[in-house]
Amino acid sequence: MLFLPRMLLMGLHFIIAGILGLLLGLCRPFNPDNSRLCARLYSLPALCMLRLRVKTEVQSLYGQEQSCVIIANHQSNYDLYVLGRVVPPRTVSIGKKSLKWVPFFGQLYWLAGNVLIDRGNARKAKEAMLTTTETLQHRDTSIWVFPEGTRNLGNGLLPFKKGAFQMAIAAGVPIIPVCVSSYAKRIKLNSWDSGRIMIRSLPAIPTLGLTLDDLPQLMERCQTLMRECIEQLDQQLAKA
């Protein structure tokens, strides 16, 4: 009985948050802190509507004195609400160019300073990656990436793509993994309490001095750490 009214309420919230975020973007276009504020606009009311209990342990996200590349596992469209709660200041993300045409959300996503890339055009995608390197090095701005490139539906991490790690090595900035417990198949939107989720950020992994020859080892290290952390989070929730 709760699913339909909850989805209607969420749809209304999506539109209102989009309009407010768009106004914010128009008032201060391409300000990199717009992303954090918009993320909160979407996240905090939605988590209350969904009655999702989210526990966060993300100290390493807020203790950085320099820009970084943040990598996180991607499970569903609800990541916008779940992870929006922990986006740190001056952090933008990388998204598909097609997002620009999603009503309200796409326009505010662009005005928030996020990087839109055309994944079907290798030359333009490479140019965008060069832009992100300059952003990391000179604009005091971090970049949030889902290295799997698509949703994993809570079935374990998919193979990582190279882009996030190439950016971090090129800019010489650390990588901070953010791990979210498996929730995509466990969320109960027809129940009063939809479920519990845990988010944990891991210590920063330095890349200064690394070269592209170190790329495979860096990717394997990050994926192993994240996989182990997600398993730990799932076990903690199972015992609670």
Automatic annotation (TrEMBL):
<keyword id="KW-0808">Transferase</keyword>
<dbReference type="InterPro" id="IPR002123">
    <property type="entry name" value="Plipid/glycerol_acylTrfase"/>
</dbReference>
<dbReference type="GO" id="GO:0016024">
    <property type="term" value="P:CDP-diacylglycerol biosynthetic process"/>
</dbReference>
<keyword id="KW-0012">Acyltransferase</keyword>
<dbReference type="GO" id="GO:0005886">
    <property type="term" value="C:plasma membrane"/>
</dbReference>
<dbReference type="InterPro" id="IPR004552">
    <property type="entry name" value="AGP_acyltrans"/>
</dbReference>
<dbReference type="Pfam" id="PF01553">
    <property type="entry name" value="Acyltransferase"/>
</dbReference>
<feature type="domain" description="Phospholipid/glycerol acyltransferase">
    <location>
        <begin position="68"/>
        <end position="183"/>
    </location>
</feature>
<keyword id="KW-0594">Phospholipid biosynthesis</keyword>
<comment type="pathway">
    <text>Phospholipid metabolism; CDP-diacylglycerol biosynthesis; CDP-diacylglycerol from sn-glycerol 3-phosphate: step 2/3.</text>
</comment>
<dbReference type="GO" id="GO:0003841">
    <property type="term" value="F:1-acylglycerol-3-phosphate O-acyltransferase activity"/>
</dbReference>
<keyword id="KW-1208">Phospholipid metabolism</keyword>
<comment type="pathway">
    <text>Lipid metabolism.</text>
</comment>
<protein>
    <recommendedName>
        <fullName>1-acyl-sn-glycerol-3-phosphate acyltransferase</fullName>
        <ecNumber>2.3.1.51</ecNumber>
    </recommendedName>
</protein>
<comment type="similarity">
    <text>Belongs to the 1-acyl-sn-glycerol-3-phosphate acyltransferase family.</text>
</comment>
<keyword id="KW-0443">Lipid metabolism</keyword>
<dbReference type="GO" id="GO:0006654">
    <property type="term" value="P:phosphatidic acid biosynthetic process"/>
</dbReference>
<keyword id="KW-0444">Lipid biosynthesis</keyword>
